[in-house]
Structure formats: structure tokens, C-alpha cells
Write a structure and sequence with these properties.
The protein is α+β, with helices and mostly antiparallel strands and 160 residues long. Helix 2 crosses helix 4 and helix 3 packs antiparallel against helix 4. A hairpin with a 4-residue loop joins strand 2 and strand 3. The protein has a single domain, classed as Enolase-like, N-terminal domain (Enolase-like, domain 1), CATH 3.30.390. The protein is built from 4 helices and 3 strands. Helices cover 44% and strands 29% of the residues.
């Protein structure tokens, strides 16, 4: 363990509707409204410093889960739930670690959780792993931002 490794204190996930100024076309889908997932992570490092970090992404089902068998609102709701469940999974991670290590330790759990959720919800076709990665990305970004903030460095300087 390094003194820069972080322990996760809290993760807050929120979703905001975003209406596009003009409809956007992704493949065969036209998107004029999408949810933006915003995540705030609070972490502590080995020195006892505490800081917050932020991450966010659109729940882009039209490109991350390209099927017309499930309506946009259904896929978007599923992606929001996977994002929430992944945040809970990350909060339960107890080892102080670098954000990259946290993701790699939880990657297979994310895959299983996504598959299980889709099966329980009867989503056919199920969300591909790319969609689950989109759901996890704002949590991951918030952890990287918090890592840099708590250690007083640019996050990119912590990748060496």
C-alpha cells in the first residue's frame, strides 16, 4: 500500500435530464434527450487527508447498447440502475488502493452484476459489457479526480 492509495468514504450518484438543442443521430437512432450521470466520490488517503472528486457521462444507450428491441427509456433506466449498483459495489471495496487497481479488482464483478441484473429484469438482448463500462465510467472518473485532489497532484501524475 502507498500513502497515496485511497479509501472510499462515499459515492453519490445523480441523474439529470439533458435535452439536446438539436436531435443527434447515432446509427439508426435519433436522440433528443438523454440522462447525464453525475458522480461525486469522497476518499481519504494514507495520510488521513480527505477530498472529493467528480465524474460524469451521458447514459448513451444508443451507441453502447444498440438494439431496437428495447425502447430508449427502458435501456436508459437499466443503465441508471447498473450505475447505482456499481457505485454501491465500489463503496463496499474496503482496501486502500489506486483507482486503476480498484477498477481491475471489480471489473469481473461489474460484468457479473450486469449480466445478473439484465437476466432478473428480463432484458433481451441484455446490455453488452460496453454498456456496463459506460455505467461504471463516471464512478471511475470521480475516483481518479478524487485521487488527484486528495494527494494534491494532477491525476495524470499519479499514473507512473
Amino acid at each position: 500500500m502507498n500513502s497515496s492509495d485511497t479509501s472510499i468514504r462515499q459515492i453519490e450518484v445523480s441523474f439529470e435530464p439533458f435535452v439536446a438543442r438539436t436531435p443527434l443521430k447515432f446509427g439508426g437512432a435519433v436522440v433528443d434527450m438523454n440522462r447525464f450521470c453525475r458522480v461525486k466520490a469522497t476518499v481519504a488517503n494514507g495520510a488521513g487527508n480527505v477530498a472529493e472528486g467528480w465524474g460524469g457521462i451521458f447514459m448513451g444507450d444508443s451507441w453502447a447498447w444498440p438494439t431496437f428491441d428495447i425502447i430508449h427509456e427502458g435501456k436508459e433506466a437499466a443503465m441508471m440502475e447498473v450505475a447505482r449498483r456499481y457505485a454501491d459495489m465500489v463503496v463496499a471495496y474496503q482496501e486502500p488502493a489506486h483507482p486503476i487497481d480498484i477498477f481491475f479488482d471489480l471489473k469481473d464483478d461489474l460484468r457479473r452484476m450486469n449480466e445478473l441484473f439484465c437476466a432478473e429484469a428480463g432484458l433481451v438482448p441484455p446490455q453488452p459489457f460496453l454498456g456496463a463500462l459506460v455505467c461504471a465510467s463516471p464512478v471511475d472518473a470521480a475516483l481518479h479526480d478524487a485521487f488527484g485532489n486528495v494527494n494534491g497532484i494532477d491525476s495524470y501524475d499519479g499514473y507512473g
